[in-house]
Predict the 3D structure of the following.
Amino acid sequence: MEDIDNYEPDSSGTLMDLKYQGLYVVDRQVLSYPSLLSLDLSFNLLQCLPEEISLLQNLEELLCASNKITALPDSIGSIQSLRLIKANNNMMVSIPKSIGQLQSLKRLVLSNNILTSLPDEIGNCNNLESLLLENNSLCRLPLSLALLRGSLSELDVSRNDKQMQTTLPSQIHQDAQSILWILALQREKTHCIENLKKDVKLLQHQIHSSEETLAELQQEMKNLETKKKRLEDDLESVRYFLNVRYHCREIRRKALELWQSVRRACARKYSESQAHNSVV
């Protein structure tokens, strides 16, 4: 049964221990102590944590193990001071993407839940040193964990989905460096494949553009061929016109020569006729 008299921090005002209180919900009074550094809600009957937990902006340790919590609140990412989250032995199937905002987080305990996946954003927890994930339902780990090779020294993924073993042999499920090395290789491979897909897509676009350009050029060639045929027809017409004009000029010239010849003959005949008449 809940005991409201216990909803107070210790004498220092920084620690609040609410273990074994039979709590079903987190009372608002708990959230009214912004100076809290550690809040222990372990071994209760909680099904969720309130979004208002973000009011505890100085909180460094959040202990909520052994409850019935199905998910952490999205607002958890706004508590930048958090260094430890212990949420093992719950019923969580996922954790929020906002977990990646916790730059001070050093230890994250999520063992004995029913997690099926982790968000890629967890790779942004640059100072994470310990990540315990044993006895969940994880099929794979986010490749972004490879970014934590410089800080993450403790990693346990034992007793998860059998599919995990297709990429991570069971012999290394508690070997952080081996796991992170494999994830780094997979991440590099995925990165190369993504780049290759982009290159192929770009090449396909270029080929499509080239095909369109080729089609345009072929159409332009057809248009030019049509124009060429039209010009050849026009040239043939011009040649015919020039040939006809030439023949007309020849006929005219010959007609003029004939007319002049007849005129001279007539003039000569007339002169001869006049001369004969004079003699007579």
